[in-house]
């Protein structure tokens, strides 16, 4: 039994509609896709979703875990995702190396596990500045996953966000256009996790275009960032988007002020990994 199937079973036992089940945590359309196995759900969203109906996430997951070994692997996948996010954000390469070994044991058992394994591989390479050392087989499989995607699920978007550097400019432009046209409406109703993934893609794309000194229309990206709710979770994306906007407009002084602001507020490690400094086109 998948998490989506378990949620559907729980919802029906409580005689709730999908809208009532989703509550204030997720949009109805997004929740509906979770039940159908088309979207993933982030751990915190699952906890919040169950909590609003008086349910304990630990008991819910335990019930799924006890179904069979396949569901046990799905539960591990949720835990690995959170560990990967934390380790990458805090630049814990040794922890990522451990995750690579642990997840690697199961990478051929499901597409989701392979996707996560690929994310770990790219996370390590990114922090070590060794993208060129990733095997061509892994790169090929990752590109295949992205191009074969029928719709942009969270897992596919996570893969793309972490591996954008392996695509040719024309392929990246095509994919970016498809992604942001898909999610440009009702941005504030997207799950918190999806907003974060989309923000990461936007920032990576702006950096890529800047480094390549390409002159293209970026309004789709800026429009998405501007529609993100003005809450702490989205602050970094909004700040960095403004930075690159100043860069492309030749407003170097304003761009430098943003860098200084970030450095003076303890964000130097984020600048190192996510921002191209010295904004002088």
Automatic annotation (TrEMBL):
Segments forming a coiled coil: 89-144
Pfam families: HTH_3, Rgg_C
SMART domains documented for this protein: HTH_XRE
Species for this entry: Lactobacillus crispatus
InterPro entries in the record: Cro/C1-type_HTH, HTH-type_regulator_Rgg, Lambda_DNA-bd_dom_sf, Transcription_activator_Rgg_C
GO MF terms held by the record: DNA binding
Domain of life, per lineage: Bacteria
Name by which UniProt lists this protein: Helix-turn-helix transcriptional regulator
UniProt keywords, alphabetically: Coiled coil
Chain ranges of the HTH cro/C1-type domain: 7-60
């Amino acid at each position: 039994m998948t998490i989506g199937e378990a949620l559907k079973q729980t919802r029906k036992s409580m005689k709730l509609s999908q809208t009532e089940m989703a509550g204030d945590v997720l949009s109805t359309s997004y929740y509906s896709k979770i039940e159908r196995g088309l979207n993933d759900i982030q751990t915190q969203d699952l906890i919040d979703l169950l909590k609003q109906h008086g349910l304990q996430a630990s008991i819910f997951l335990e019930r799924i875990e006890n179904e069979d070994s396949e569901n046990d692997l799905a539960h591990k996948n949720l835990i690995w995702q959170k560990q990967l996010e934390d380790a990458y954000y805090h630049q814990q390469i040794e922890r990522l190396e451990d995750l690579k070994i642990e997840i690697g044991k199961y990478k051929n058992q499901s597409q989701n596990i392979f996707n996560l394994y690929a994310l770990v591989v790219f996370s390590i390479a990114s922090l070590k500045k060794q993208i060129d050392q990733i095997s061509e087989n892994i790169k090929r499989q990752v590109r295949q996953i992205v191009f074969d995607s029928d719709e942009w699920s969270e897992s596919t978007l996570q893969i793309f966000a972490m591996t954008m550097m392996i695509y040719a400019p024309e392929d990246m432009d095509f994919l970016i256009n498809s992604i942001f046209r898909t999610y440009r409406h009702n941005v504030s109703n997207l799950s918190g996790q999806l907003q974060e993934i989309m923000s990461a893609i936007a920032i990576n794309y702006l950096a890529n275009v800047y480094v390549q000194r390409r002159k293209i229309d970026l309004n789709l990206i800026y429009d998405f960032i501007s529609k993100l709710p003005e809450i702490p979770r989205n602050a970094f994306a909004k700040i960095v988007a403004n930075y690159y906007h100043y860069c492309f407009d030749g407003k170097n002084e304003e761009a430098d002020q943003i860098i200084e602001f970030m450095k003076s507020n303890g964000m130097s490690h984020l600048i190192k990994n996510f921002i191209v400094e010295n904004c002088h086109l």
